[in-house]
From TrEMBL:
Keywords: Membrane, Transmembrane, Transmembrane helix. The keyword Protein biosynthesis does not apply. The keyword Transmembrane applies. Residues 8-60 form the YiaAB two helix domain. The chain crosses the membrane at residues 7-29, 35-55. This is YiaAB two helix domain-containing protein. Pfam families: YiaAB (PF05360).
Amino acid sequence: MPRNTPAFYAQAVASFAIALVAVTIGVFMLPVDPWVRGFLSLGLLYTVTSAFTLAKCIRDKQEDNAVHKRVDQARLDKLITEHDPFKTT
């Protein structure tokens, strides 16, 4: 199975952290009323948690598909090994 390299993982984490910090600083530096900042902060929090949930759902679906493929492959391998084309009934 293909795996992500540690460098790719580190880059993804760093990218997420930089984006989150930049948007958070941007929200708090806006020249608007506190209730607008609060609304934007809640929107940012909701977006981040939704992104994590979506990523988890996609990962779970891929893992489920991988398990089904392995089970199907094991069944096919068993059928192939048990099949004798020269056997007469």
